[in-house]
Amino acid sequence: MAGARASTVGRLDSGRRALTTLKAKLTGFLVERTEDLVKRKRDELEEQRARRHANLEVANAAELLAQAAQALGLPLKASAREIVLEASKIKYLSGNAFFSS
Q1: How far is CA 51 from CA 44, 54, 56, 57, in A?
Q2: At what angle do helices 80-88 and 2-71 cross, to 10 degrees?
Q3: Cα–Cα distances in angstroms (integers) from residue 3 to residues 14, 15, 79, in the given order
Q4: d(CA 97, CA 91)
Q5: CA distance 27 to 31
Q6: I want to staple 72 with a disulfide (CB 3.0 to 4.6 A). Which of 39, 43, 50, 86 is the partner?
């Protein structure tokens, strides 16, 4: 009877070890999976931030072009080429013009 009991205890110990090993593997898997999800979400948020920043830069550039067009008497939707061509026709004063008496 003692031999049968020892055999049962041995199987229980072996089962506990297998269960502990399985729990450790599953925990490691869950940690890796969670880390992957966090990294994916972080990358997604960074991409969204970069897109918002790029959109803001485009909006700022469009606003500057519209202001330049308006200052030159061109329509607000004038192209950059039209703005540059119109600006090239302006005679600019040199810095010395402000200091001459």
Answers
A1: 11, 5, 9, 10
A2: 40
A3: 16, 18, 95
A4: 12
A5: 6
A6: 86
3-state secondary structure of 100: coil
Nearest in space to 11 (alpha carbons), one of 19, 25, 23: 19
pLDDT tens, position by position, 3-34: 556 566 667 788 888 888 888 888 888 888 88
Among 65, 90, 95, 61, which Cα is nearest to 80's?
65
Average pLDDT, the chain: 85
pTM > 0.85: yes or no: no
User: Tell me, what's the pLDDT at 26?
Assistant: 85
H-run or E-run covering 52: helix 2-71
pLDDT value, residue 61: 94
